[in-house]
Amino acid sequence: MFDNQIWLVLALIGTFLTIFMLGLAVDMVLNGKSRRAVTMLQSHVGAMPEALNIREEQLKRSALERLALPFAGKLAHSLARATPIDLPRRIQRLIVLAGNPPGLTAERIVALKIILGIGGLVGGFALASLLGLSGPLFVFAIVIFTLVGYTLPSATVSARASKRQKEIRNALSDTMDLLTISVEAGLGFDAAMAQVVRNVEGPLSQELARLLQEMQIGVSRVDAFRNLSDRTEITELDGFVLSMIQADRYGVGIANVLRAQAQELRHKRRQRAEESAQKVPVKLLFPMIFMILPAMFVVILGPGAIKIFEFFSSQH
Q1: How is the chain split into domains, by residue range?
Q2: Residues 98-154 pLDDT 10s
Q3: What kind of fold does domain 165-270 have according to CATH?
Q4: Residue 121: which of 19, 1, 6, 22 has the closest Cα?
């Protein structure tokens, strides 16, 4: 029985490695086809531009090539995303959303995931053996410990990114009010943002400081605002960025745009507060049913039940 369990664990590890290698091979094949297609187009566009009719070429193909092959390509891309091939890019995106903490890189997170995954595998195997588990419980314990160890580093970074986004969303309304007051008081937009950076703490202030630094080193205001939107991925901040880009492009007054954005952000914050308040009864329902109400029944009905029991016992 113990040898069968070891072979089952080795089979699970082999299955994971097989999926990884298959995804890697598919990704290499797709990238190679894309590079060859780009090379062929670049070599023929200058010589025969009139002969490249993509629509006619696609219509000449069979239905299998036009329907099955694109579907297979999308399926392979989805499988590649499910395998560790796309893992460094996704982790790097989480690190950006988390504010690029010092000393934290995608390579370190991937290495830590592998180390903790192997540690979870060994720890689950040892713990299951010590507890005397066998059969499906043995395999289940090993799989759970391995998955926990493998997902813990990226889950930690994701939680940090979510917390930072929440802090930026909560501070956005007050920061926008201060920015509006500074602009209406006579400061330029850059000077008003510098004033906000000096007087406000938090991740939003850090992002605005980076925005100012990018503009000072020569990045255009439009690109700097787009970079701000890419680093945060917050819907409310995206609306502000879009408004500022349009104001800079069409020459609209900054003060009017900021006032409208501040009013809209206050309205959205009020809506979020009302939404959170409406979720409270639903969140309290299950704790009340399974924790509070049983205790209340015991306290309220317990003495009466005891009296009734004593009464009927004395009758006999």
Answers
A1: 2-38+61-163, 165-270
A2: 988 888 888 888 888 888 888 888 888 888 888 887 888 888 888 899 999 989 999
A3: Receptor-associated Protein (1.20.81)
A4: 6
